[in-house]
Amino acid sequence: MKKKKCMMDHLKVECLLPIPSKLLIWYDHVARKLPWRIDHSSYRVWVSEVMLQQTRVEAVIPYFERFMSALPNLAALAHASEDQLLKLWEGLGYYSRVRNLQRAAKEVLRSGRKELPQDYQALLSLPGIGAYTAGAIASIAFGIQVPAVDGNVLRVLSRLFACGKDISLPAIKHMFEEAARSLVPAERPGDFNQAMMELGATVCLPHTAPHCDVCPISDYCRAHLNGNAEDYPYKAPKKPRVIEERTILLVIACGHVLLQRRPTKGLLAGMWEFPNYLGWFEDEEKQALLIGLGMGNAPMRPLGESKHIFTHREWKLRGTLVMATDCIEVEGAIWASGEDLNKKYALPSAYQYFSKQLPKLFDLSMEEKWAR
């Protein structure tokens, strides 16, 4: 879309007054039954909203139920070990989010409270809670009349107002938040915000023609009336991702695999991972690495290649199986069994292609077989 015009300034708020009631009637009939909608406690709303960021609802449901079972309240979250926390989050990605959940929980307990504060500004002051999450908690759990503008709602609003300004810009996001604020009703603000999210998730879809024929507010949507709803929202093109080639070593011995911990800051901070190195190494270079680990001349064979895309980075991974004879002590590393990986240690989804091969590799090492 070349033109970045916006109809927002030309629409009177009075023209949009019917939207809340129409949207709530629609929501009452079509809202999906989701586990975090059964109980609107602030803790459950908070955890679900953090999990749902950049993750599909269907994928979040089992994570949410497992998390609630293991850590049912704010105190349990605050006192969880890091390994338990990361294991419960394993596969969701963006691990800084779960760390911020715990940081915020600890801060609330230190303040003498047992639950999240019933105040929008106080929620904003907690680690990891931005305008959207604070708005969701405040409106859904506490009935406070504030907007909650996530990616789905941004898309709905950009089409509603036929606004072609770049929604990735903070100033434009703030503009849409103020527009949403004028729509949030005093009664049922939480349901209204969830209705807007539901509309974006099920009707006003991205990357395709929206289902305007079943939209309850299409009569008020400038983009629909103009016949170009699919042109919105507008985002400036992203910068090219940084591509890294990495060599992964799966060192197996006696039914265990060697794991090392990533640095406490940066990408995948503090996560357990297989030993890996920047660049694609030849066999001689890998042997040199193994000598450094104290296990030179161990048999090796290729395990294939995979890739993983982060927000601004792409890893191209080339794996090598290393069959060590013993679980020798390696500084800064541990040996993990299959049970350890199932219950205790979390591995980033970036290594999923290789971690899925571990069961058969463990069997191979226990039987002391090697296909040469």
Would you give an account of this structure?
This protein has 372 residues and is an alpha+beta fold. It folds into two domains: 8-231, Endonuclease III, domain 1, CATH 1.10.340; 242-366, Nucleoside Triphosphate Pyrophosphohydrolase. The protein has helices spanning 19-30, 35-38, 42-52, 57-70, 74-79, 82-89, 96-110, 120-124, 131-142, 151-160, 170-181, 189-202, 222-226, 283-292, 338-343, 352-355, 358-366; strands spanning 242-253, 256-261, 272-273, 276-278, 300-309, 313-323, 333-337. Strands 1, 2, 3, 4, 5, 6 and 7 form a seven-stranded mixed beta sheet that branches. A hairpin with a 2-residue loop joins strand 1 and strand 2 (256-261). Helix 1 crosses helix 12, helix 9 (131-142) packs across helix 12 and helix 10 packs across helix 12 (189-202). It is elongated, with a radius of gyration of 25 Å. The relative contact order is 0.11. The mean pLDDT is 91.
Which fold name fills CATH's third level, the topology of the largest domain?
Endonuclease III, domain 1
% residues in beta strands: 5-15%
Q: How many helix segments?
A: 17
Structural class: alpha+beta
Number of β-strand runs: 7
